């Protein structure tokens, strides 16, 4: 699913490729890491809310972030 988007040579080409694609539905079908990769290519015309949920899920499950540290600041105060 990502191959055509990964092949884009510019952000403009990435945006143009999104025309006619239900981006929210596409992002929803991707695993968290693939969604993060897609979002790194440029802005999404639609589906940014789904992308942000997948980014958060990736950070908390794959990168080992602890939910107990959210909002506590750098020093845990």
Strands, helices and their partners?
Blueprint: H1 3-6, H2 11-18, H3 23-29, H4 32-39, H5 48-61
Helix pairs in contact: 4-5
Question: Features of this protein?
Answer:
0% strand; 53% helix; 5 helices; single chain; mainly alpha; 77 residues
Number of domains: 1
Radius of gyration (CA) equals 15 Å
Q: What fraction of residues sit in β-strands?
A: under 5%
* Number of distinct beta strands: 0
The rounded distance between the terminal residues' Cα atoms is 43 Å
Structural class: mainly alpha
The geometry reads as globular
Q: Into which percent range does the helicity of residues fall?
A: 40-55%
Mean pLDDT: 79
Poorly predicted ranges? none
The main sheet comes to: none
Order of helices and strands: HHHHH
Number of helices: 5
Written description of the protein model:
It contains 5 helices and no strands. It has helices at 3-6, 11-18, 23-29, 32-39, 48-61. It starts with a helix and ends in a 16-residue tail after the last helix. Helix 4 crosses helix 5 (48-61). 53% of the residues lie in helices and 0% in strands. It is globular and about 35 Å long. The protein has one domain (9-64).
């Amino acid at each position: 699913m990502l191959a055509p988007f990964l092949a884009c040579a510019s952000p403009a080409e990435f945006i143009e490729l999104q025309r006619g694609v239900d981006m929210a539905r596409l992002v929803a079908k991707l695993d968290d890491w693939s969604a993060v990769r897609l979002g790194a290519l440029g802005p999404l015309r639609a589906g940014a809310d789904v992308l942000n949920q997948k980014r958060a899920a990736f950070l908390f499950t794959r990168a080992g972030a602890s939910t107990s540290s959210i909002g506590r600041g750098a020093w845990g105060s």
